[in-house]
Specification:
Elements lengths: L2 H21 L11 H13 L11 H22 L3 H12 L6 H7 L4 H26 L6 H29 L1 H8 L4 H23 L6 H28 L3 H9 L3 H11 L6 H23 L6
Helix pairs in contact: 1-9, 1-13, 2-7, 2-9, 3-4, 3-6, 3-10, 4-10, 4-12, 4-13, 5-6, 5-11, 6-7, 6-11, 7-8, 9-13, 10-11, 10-13, 12-13
């Protein structure tokens, strides 16, 4: 297909991917294993354009982390009196760290890649260390601190550090290949469309497989609560980011979550029904991301 035709299809690719995931969800089990590899490749391509000399931990990252943890605490205590399961599900949607794929979307939207990459590392390490303590208070689990810590690290660190190390090695060992990858950033968009197809299909499949009639209203409130905190986090994240001159990085850092880790934590530490909240969050955050990308691509200053 010619590049001209691909460019004409771009505004429709993400909605088509999401619709395809909904329609073909029964077959997602055959392709879900591809998701980590797609995310790794997207991050590798994105990090090839990153100048690591610009990565530094500053006030922006600490303020964003503090606001995120404050929202997590408020959301839990506001809901715990009414329905503890809903409180657990909504809490984990806020407490959970930034998605490893967030820098990819941030770069597509014109945000600061070094700022968000730094925040992603900080947030993921913070949750890995503090998470077992907090979840022992909020949830109900038989896991010990060390076991929980190692489990979270095992799920997070390969996709966080692997693409960074790969891009550094390629930069030093194969500079021509590195420059070629760096100049083809638009590939990330097409990989994201494929990932979105798989992620949305997996989300629909997960919710259907965990459906029970007696939990219907709890599941509805979990989905509604996930939508509410998703919108709140993107909005407040952009407000915080705007104070530091980068609303995109703030919005993606706080709003785009590591939902796979969130589902696992909900199943391991909480009432399993609470996992419907992060599963729903997958759909909500990707609808918002798709809308942002399409709006950005339609602007005059967009350059793939």
């Amino acid at each position: 297909m010619s590049s001209e035709r691909l460019n004409r299809l771009k505004p429709f690719m993400l909605p088509i991917a999401m619709l395809g995931g909904i329609l073909f969800y029964p077959w997602m089990g055959y392709v879900q294993f591809l998701s980590p590899y797609l995310i790794f490749t997207m991050l590798f391509i994105t990090y090839c354009r990153l100048d690591f000399r610009h990565i530094s931990l500053g006030r922006f990252q600490w303020v964003l982390l503090g606001v995120q943890m404050l929202i997590a605490a408020i959301s839990y205590f506001l809901l715990a009196w009414a329905n503890h399961t809903v409180a657990e599900g909504v809490f984990i949607c806020v407490f959970i760290p930034t998605a490893t794929a967030a820098p990819v979307i941030c770069a597509m939207l014109g945000g600061s890649l070094p700022k968000l990459a730094t925040y992603s590392l900080l947030c993921n390490v913070f949750v890995a260390i503090v998470g077992p303590f907090v979840l022992a208070l909020v949830g109900d689990t038989e896991y010990g601190f060390l076991e929980s810590f190692l489990m979270i690290l095992r799920m997070v660190m390969p996709l966080l550090l692997g693409p960074i190390l790969a891009s550094l090695l390629i930069r030093k060992g194969l500079p021509k290949f590195h420059e070629n990858v760096k100049s083809h950033q638009s590939i990330s968009f097409y990989l994201w469309a494929v990932s979105l197809f798989i992620i949305v299909g997996g989300c629909v499949s997960f919710i259907i497989s965990h459906y029970r009639q007696e939990d219907l209203w709890t599941m509805i409130w979990l989905a509604v609560g996930a939508l509410a905190v998703c919108l709140i986090q993107f909005k407040i994240g952009r407000m915080v980011g705007r104070r530091f001159g980068d609303p995109v990085s703030g919005g993606q850092g706080m709003g785009q979550k590591n939902t796979v880790l969130a589902v696992w934590i909900a199943l391991a530490y909480m009432n399993p029904v609470a996992s419907i909240a992060p599963a729903s969050y997958i759909a909500w955050q990707n609808i918002i991301n798709s809308w942002q990308i399409m709006r950005h691509k339609s602007s005059a200053d967009f350059k793939p």
